[in-house]
Structures are given as structure tokens and as C-alpha cells.
Amino acid sequence: MIRDITIGQYYPAESAIHKMDARLKLMITFVFIVTLFLVNTFVGYVFVIACMGLTIRASKVPFKFMTRGLKSIIVIILFTVVINLFMTQGEHVLLRVGFLRVTMEGVLLAAKMCVRLVLLIIGSSVLTLTTTPIQLTDAIEYILKPFKRIGVPAHEIAMMMTIALRFIPTLLDETDKIMKAQQARGADFDTGNLIQKAKSLIPILVPLFISAFRRAEELAMAMEARCYHGDEHRTRMNVMTMKSSDYRAAVMAAVYTVVIIGLRFVAKAVPFII
């Protein structure tokens, strides 16, 4: 389960998505997440899934690797589905279980929320899997740069977010090592009730926090030793520039957004579309 989390990892490959400008990828990902909440029809979800499939194929990241991160949030997805199934009111009742009832409207809403969560995780994974931490830092800083005039520390925010993303796989590997070491000493993390399982995590959390603080201190000392002073008089070895392929990708993203908005208006005009 620990190794199934792919957010924060980078998958090296020679693809058009990897070569895209990191600023454009970040903005397209943000637009994609927003448009997910605008989709409310079956045709719209099919269109989004088709676009996501083409994007994954263009990224040359294995589909199994891309979807592996879904295993870590399967509990959240199931919880969301159950809540929408039994808490959504509707006229067409399909099943009654005591005071609970499942309606056709609840089934449709649960299916839409499930697909929406899956697409949200996969879309975010595409960004981190095809963008190096340095590129992501520069992209976030560039986008936040206009807010520096009102006192927003753009560079510091970008650095903290990137370090947090970069340390996710590192801490996961550390957790895996600690669990294996504890299991070799006879620890059992699978049996017992909920309270016993929670108590069994203490031998993992304590050394994990100690390791995280030690790594943070070592990183701070390394940055000080290299005379790091934020973005003061800082230059970049690789300056981000938009290429013709990036402009074509931006046009495709704009067309995608227009289609999503158009499908939403069509759904209002034609109510029988699911």
C-alpha cells in the first residue's frame, strides 16, 4: 500500500508531455480540476475520460503505474460512494434498507462522484509524474510572481510546496523500511480491532517523525552551507520558454474548456441527457 502512492514521484520519459512548459502544465491541471466540477452529463464524462486517456498515452507513462495511486484512496472513494447512495433524495426508489433507501438519483450521483475523484487523482498524478521538482518550483514561483507586489512570498511558497512533494516518496520509503524492521522484530500490524491497530502504529510513527525532523535539519544545514538566501540575486541555469508545441497545447486546452462549458449549457437546454 505504501508503494502505491505515486503523487510526488517523477517518471522519466521522452514524451511531448514531459517536454511541455511546466507553467503551462500547472495551469492546464488547474483548469482540468475546475472543469471536472462543471461536468454533469454522461457525454461530458466520456469526453473527459477520452481526453485523459490520450494525455496518458502521450505522456508514455505506463497506465498501471498511473492508476497505482488509486489504491491508496480506495477507502475515500468507497466512503464517498456510500454517502451519496444513501443520503441522496430522489423520486425513483430502487432499494429500501430500514430507514435508508437507494434512489436512481443517488446511484447516478455516486457514479459521477466516483469518476470525478478518479480523474482528479489521475490528472494530478500526470503533472507530478511528468514534471521534475525543480521545474515545478520554477513554475509555481513564476505564476505567483505578480502577487509579490502585495507581500506574497512567491519563492518561499514554491520552495515549500516542492520540498513537500519531493519528500512524499522519501518518507514513504522510510515508512516501508521501518515497517519491515518492526515486522522482523515480531510486530503485527494486521490483526486486532481498530484500537489495537492504532496502537500498533506508534512504533512506526515515532521513528518516522524523528527521521523526518532529522532530514529537515540536514536539508536546512545543506541549504545554509550553499549560501541559500531565497530568490535574492538568484538566477536560473534553465530559463523556461514557451515553444510552438506549448502554444498548440494551450489552444487544445482552450478548446477542451469550451467543449466542457458548451456541454453544460446543452445539458440545461436538453434535460433528458444524463
Automatic annotation (TrEMBL):
Gene Ontology molecular function: transmembrane transporter activity
Query: What is one cellular component GO term in this UniProt entry?
Result: plasma membrane
Residues in coiled coil = none
As for membrane topology, the entry says: Multi-pass membrane protein
Q: What is its main location?
A: membrane
Q: Name one Pfam family in it.
A: CbiQ
Q: Which residues form the signal peptide?
A: none
The record's annotation in CDD domains points to: EcfT (cd16914)
Localisation per UniProt entry: Cell membrane
Sorted UniProt keywords: Cell membrane, Membrane, Transmembrane, Transmembrane helix, Transport
Q: Which domain of life is it from?
A: Bacteria
* Transmembrane segments annotated in the record for this chain: 28-56, 68-87, 107-129, 150-168, 247-267
Function per UniProt: Transmembrane (T) component of an energy-coupling factor (ECF) ABC-transporter complex. Unlike classic ABC transporters this ECF transporter provides the energy necessary to transport a number of different substrates.
The family annotation for this protein states: Belongs to the energy-coupling factor EcfT family.
Q: How does it assemble?
A: Forms a stable energy-coupling factor (ECF) transporter complex composed of 2 membrane-embedded substrate-binding proteins (S component), 2 ATP-binding proteins (A component) and 2 transmembrane proteins (T component).
Q: What protein name is recorded for this chain?
A: Energy-coupling factor transporter transmembrane protein EcfT
**Which gene specifies this protein's sequence?**
ecfT
